Amino acid sequence: MDLGLLQRNVAEMIGVSECTIYNWEKGGSQPVTKHMPRIIDFLGYVPFECPEDILGRLDYFKRIKGLTLDGLGSFMDRDPEQLSDWLRYHKRPCRRNLESINQFLAKHGLGVGDQSIMQDKLCEGGRARITISG
Predict the structure, then answer these.
(1) Which of 16, 82, 115, 119 is deepest in the core (most CB within 10 A)?
(2) What's the CATH number where 61 sits?
(3) pTM of the full predicted structure?
(4) Taking a C-beta distance cutoff of 8 angstroms, is the pair 51, 87 a contact?
(5) What's the domain count of the chain?
(6) What is the full per-residue pLDDT of the chain (134 aa) written as tens digits?
(7) In which domain, by residue range, is 93 found?
């Protein structure tokens, strides 16, 4: 997208340095989450896809809002450590928590709609696989 803007103009709009804009353009670094809301406002669209899975959507919400895990925890009234485990796929939320996450996401326009959330338990190590079916 070429709007004829200088790096310093874009940097001022987003709240970063010119050097940061240069690094983003050249692929030297990626924007940090806290800058995403301003980047989205500047672009006029979200520059990445919304995942179909519920935990992917929760991470998507976190990213587009520019939230840290602590911020998301405050937003959802959840422990940030628990959210970290879920978003890094270290632990899987139970069915009740999945329903709570989906209700939260639906309230913000990102729920999985009329699809039901099911949890299929695997025998090995008590791990669970999350599936969404319609």
Answers:
(1) 16
(2) 1.10.260
(3) 0.77
(4) no
(5) 2
(6) 567 788 899 999 999 999 999 999 898 899 999 999 999 998 899 998 999 899 999 999 999 999 999 999 999 999 999 999 999 999 999 999 999 999 999 999 888 763 434 333 222 233 333 333 33
(7) 54-133
